[in-house]
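User: Sequence for RNA cytidine acetyltransferase below. Tokens please.
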Amino acid sequence: MRKKIDARIRTLVENCVKLRQRGLFVIIGDKGRDQVVNLHYMLSKAVVKARPSVLWCYKKDLYLSSARKKRMNQIRKMQQRGLLDPEKEDPFSLFVASTQIRYCYYHETQNILGNTYGMCVLQDFEALTPNLLARTIETVEGGGLVVLLLSNLNSLSQLYTLTMDVHSRLRTESHQDVTGRFNERLVLSLASCPHCLLMDDELNVLPTSSLIKYIEPVPLNPDGTPVNDPSAASKQELQDLSGSLADTQPAGSLVGRCRTLDQARALVTFLDAASEKTLRSTVALTASRGRGKSAALGLAIAGAVALGYSNIFVTAPSPENLRTLFQFVFKGLDSLDYKEHIDYDLVESTNPSFGKAVVRVNIFRNHRQTVQYILPQHHAKLAQAELLVIDEAAAIPLPTVKALLGPYLVFLCSTVNGYEGTGRSLSLKLIQQLREQGAKLSSGEGKSGDGLSGGRTFREVQLAEPIRYAPGDPIESWLHNLLCLDAGQHVPRPPAKLPHPDQCELYYVERDTLFSYHKASERFLQNMVSLYVASHYKNTPNDLILMSDAPAHHLFVLLGPVDETQNVLPDILAVVQVALEGAISRKAAMSSLARGELPQGDLIPWTVGQQYQDPDFPSLSGARIVRIAVHPEMPRAGYGTRAIELLKRYYQGELSGLHEEDEEEADDEEEEADEEEAGPSK
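Assistant: Structure tokens for RNA cytidine acetyltransferase:
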């Protein structure tokens, strides 16, 4: 039976295509799979190009049974022969047969990094983690759709109590009750996303927010572009920049390969540094994921080849990380009229673990030039280097990055936020040091033997505009707020007047309130995570679910004197995350020690118990400090020491909570009242 669907669904799909932004559809019900076909059909009608490809992620079992898979192959063969009758076939079977679908287990999603799809379908919600959310949604291009299938659920409220797969890793012997605070916050956050629709499995839109009450079509200009196109100005500037550099080679040919204005400006900065040929310069490029950092570096290497650099070295944690970089090296060389096998050859790795990744490019047009990959730890081989390119420097240990710097031109890039962790340590320590020494050099104070990079000029470039989708994408904003991915970019300012550590107090953070998605709670959470990111090298979105749902974990913050008359959030001076460990039964300890296994959690009891083969030690109770983070602009001010001192006193029972103090005051008042009543009467 044909049914008229809500007009808002089609309007949102068409608006996403016009604006080159993404849309999110959450489908509740067991038949949500069948509605993926209809959404993909609407998307195919809205886009001008070929049918959008689909990424279908799942935990273990796909919706296709073995018999259905066999039928799919038969339909595909019939379609190729022209014998298929669409009227007689199941719509889902036709969809699978006629669409390019990439099926992917959740545990293999690292293999899809760097790929782009028109639609992403996420089934088996219980298997999702914050890392997986960020990793999969990021692959969808502008104008594409993300579909979240919630089968076996009748309402969104059931998500609050849904047991996630990750919860099994959060439980410990003495802490078994997990509270799903992250899921609750995720559901509440959906109402704040203007490009998100929640529907049942018959495509009836569920009322969740006033933002989706009316969805109007995007007005268009006569040429078909949106009236309020957020990227129109930058596109025009990119064309102007490309036109102004048309007669300047190699920049003119290479800038034409850039997709955004930010990327073109970064490339021009790289080429300016390369054309100076002082070999005592460092250019640092930082950006979020999906901004085209590796592509800009690849084009810059092609430009350096055209400028006559002979010995160019490229380093990254693995040559597999350099696929995009080398791809754009070749695109840049093609733009400069270099021909493969005539002007250059490429050499692939013979190491099976590197998967035939390119490790060397030999150029022999004018004179012999090489672009060579080296492992980061082989920095001693850089004696003859003229240019060193460090891709994804945040994934390389900081001492190794420092050892890589030398008397040659250095281009380095780093991801400052994203699912794989942050490069905040790199930007705080190394880049800050390079910036200070570059400032000394420009003011005439630098010395040639001045430590790490004395006498080096330093330039810094940042990329903000995304490549896959248009700026201002609501799904990106929603995801970054949900997973606190931008927290590292917004470290709160230190208080104007720093309190003495003795004036500071330690407060216990109520996690139910912190993850309630209240406006004030969100700001406080973002401030806490920003201190984590600024103080620790490796942060991933999965740390958030550890903070919210782990039953053994507790959060504390160190605050200065709080003025209760002011309606403002207090300044956080330090954050402490504590895990309660121990209290493990002797039977469980004996069983684990006999098998040589270390269960999740309870790190200190299991480690010490196994090391000394002592089955009684795990029965002791204790608190382990998982993380302690102090505001980055207030190091060595005594706040971390004060926080640990107060935490120690708290667990020794010397400090009482606010509610306990209120109860004691109430008891004292009752005792005084009783004494007055019992006193002698006149």
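The chain has three domains: 7-212, 260-463, 487-583+620-665.
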